[in-house]
Amino acid sequence: MFWAEKGGGAFLNDRRLRVSSRREMGQALFATGIPFAGVPRKAEFSAILEAIMPQVAGVRRFGAAALDLAWVAAGRYEGFWELGLNPWDIGAGILMVREAGGFVTTPDGEDPLHKRDVVAGNMHLHEPLRAIVADVVKRLAKAPRAATARPGA
Q1: Which of 87, 131, 133, 139 is most buried, judged by most C-beta within 10 A?
Q2: What are phi and psi of 69, to 5 degrees?
Q3: Angle, alpha carbons 44-114-8 (nearest 5°)
C-alpha cells in the first residue's frame, strides 16, 4: 500500500520511499498518460512525446496518474507528465512525490493541484522535463489553428 503524510514521508507498506537519483536524461525512464479518442490536446501530447523520446531511455504508459506518481515517488520512474488531469487524479500523488524528495509543478512551474497539467520528477530531472513540456505547450499555443472545413462547404 502506497501512503504519505505531509511532513512525515512517503511509504510503500512500511518502507520509506525516495525518488530516483538519476541525473542524466539519456538514462531516465518517464511515464505519461496518452490521450484517448475524444480527448482534446492530442497534438500537444504528440509533440511533447516527439521532443522527449530522443533524449530519454524510455517512456511508459500505465494508465493511472495516481499510480504513475506513486512510482515516481518509489524511484521506479524518474518523472511523469500529463495534461488535462483532475485534482482527484493527482492530489495524493503530488504529496507522495514531494514527501519522497521530488518536485511536482505545472509546465509553468506553478502548483498543479487545480491547474490540470502536471510534471513530476526527481531533483535532477524535473526541471529538464518541465522545460520540454512547457516549451511545446507554449509553442503550440502560439501556432495558428488550422481552419476546419464545414460539411457541404
Answers
A1: 133
A2: -65, -40
A3: 115
Reported pTM? 0.89
Q: At what angle do helices 65-73 and 87-99 cross, to 10 degrees?
A: 0
- The three cell numbers of residue 10 are 512517503
Q: Does residue 24 sit in helix, strand or coil? A: coil
Q: Where do we find the cell 504529496?
A: 95
- Single-letter residue type at 83: L
Banded pLDDT at 147 (limits 50, 70, 90): very low
Instruction: Yes or no: say if 52 and 59 are a contact pair by the CB < 8 Å rule.
Output: yes
pLDDT digit string, tens, across residues 3-33: 999 999 999 999 999 999 999 999 999 999 8
Three cell numbers, residue 114: 487545480
